[in-house]
Amino acid sequence: MIEMKQASFEYKKNQPIFQEVNWELSKGETLSILGPNGVGKTTLIKCLLGFQSLKSGNVLMEGIPISQYAPKDFFQRVSYVPQAKHIIFPYSVLDMVLLGRASSIGIYSKPSSKDMDIAKEAIRKVGIEHLTHCSTRQISGGQLQLVLMARAIVNQPEVLVLDEPESNLDMKNQLMILDLLERLREEMTLTIIINTHYPNHALRLGGKALLLGQNDQKDFGDAHQFINDDTIRRYFHVDSQMVEWREEEKKHQRIFPLRISKEAV
Ligand SMILES: Nc1ncnc2c1ncn2[C@@H]1O[C@H](COP(=O)(O)OP(=O)(O)OP(=O)(O)O)[C@@H](O)[C@H]1O
Fold first, then answer.
1. GO terms for molecular function, please (predicted)?
2. Which of 2, 25, 38, 241 is the most buried (most CB within 10 A)?
């Protein structure tokens, strides 16, 4: 459904950020992008959305390079959720979510009652009806992240791209975001691409993982196969312990960081 083929990028000549990255996702699959600070995860997302041009390679949706899509068509199908900490607007929650309908409403028109209903439905889907008329300046970081998720799904996109949506949130709010992503994936058959600092979140979401590391390290495959003590040491230079348990007939895995790896010192 969406893929990167032989994708390379550099900001400065001969200083590659990533090289020959390949991954592909089917409809309704999840991709978690993981790697240490500064390795190029956000840059890769910017290339995926066409905000930066690849040096070589391609991003394809349904087999067609994204450069061939009109931006309006592309962004109706692919929606982006930025980090909440960068957003400060004096809007109500409802207005903020309605902004997601801007491409359908037109610059000089007022939102119709249908637009209002669609926005309220998105607000209901993320579970924040009680905040509908609150100012986005007077809600918590976790609540604002949910507002941005509602804004992103208001046009019923096929692909949701999120840049560290759970960073800066407490444990409960992190779990709320992960629960919501799992629910949206099921209800809307959403394809989800998430940039995260938490290997455990990738394990919880399942699906695919793209690991990016220093010295052109990269791996792509099933999250449960590629996130393990060996890759955590090689990519993050941390010794870890994988723990497994069963709950309701399902096998779960989480990884605990133990210490900075001696190999890294
Ligand atoms: N606009 C830019 N111009 C030049 N270099 C940049 C630009 N944006 C980012 N970089 C550099 O590119 C590298 C990758 O940055 P990027 O933000 O993509 O990493 P990241 O993996 O998302 O980091 P983090 O995990 O800390 O958010 C870094 O060395 C960064 O300094």
1. ATP binding; ATP hydrolysis activity
2. 2
| Residue 168 CA to ligand 1 centre (angstroms) | 19
- Domain 2-227: which CATH class? alpha beta
Interface predicted TM-score (ipTM) over 0.90:
yes
Residue nearest to atom 6 of ligand 1 (CA): 11
* Span 160-202, pLDDT tens digits: 999 998 887 888 888 988 998 999 899 889 999 999 999 999 9
| Ligand 1 neighbours by CB, cut-off 6 Å | 11, 17, 35, 37-43
CA distance 227 to 230: 8
| Atom 14 of ligand 1, residue of closest alpha carbon | 40
Token pair recorded at residue 159: 């692909």
- Give the nearest ligand 1 atom to 39 CA: 21
* Ligand 1 atom at minimum distance from 36 CA: 25
What distance in Å separates the CA atoms of residue 7 and residue 59, rounded to the nearest whole number? Answer: 8
Q: From ligand 1's centre to the CA of 41, what distance in Å?
A: 8
